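Thread: "does anyone have the structure for this chain?"

Original post by V.I.:
We have the sequence but no experimental structure in hand. Need at least a predicted one for the grant figures.
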Amino acid sequence: MKISGKFEVNLSPLDTHAEGQNNISLGRMSIDKVFHGDLDAKSRGEMLSAMTPVKGSAGYVAIEQVTGALAGKQGSFVLQHFGVMHAGNNRLVLEVIPGSGTGELSGLTGEMSISIEDGQHFYDFDYELPN
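Reply from O.Q.:
Generated one for you, tokens below.
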């Protein structure tokens, strides 16, 4: 199945354990999202990031637990993020952690992509649920 929709995201800085050295900025942020469409859900999570002194070069990892309804089925699942940005070449992977689905979403697998257009966030979610 493949679905698409909009979401809002709120990122807030959190205290960090590690401090960057040699012009590298390390950050930690909370993630709060509200998804709309066939994914009618909220998520909470955390992100770790590294900004380099080279403009447009950075990376991040994140974990967020999504709770709500997916195509009318109730439950939750966890998304893992991996993002690398460099000179306009961006790579972003959001994948459902195997075994993280609960309730009617037990056994969920899938990958999500996100895009930003005119300040609005959009998702495409390609997923499978066992019969």
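V.I.: this helps a lot. The chain has a mean pLDDT of 96.
O.Q.: and Strands lie at 2-13, 25-35, 39-51, 58-70, 73-86, 89-96, 109-117, 120-128.
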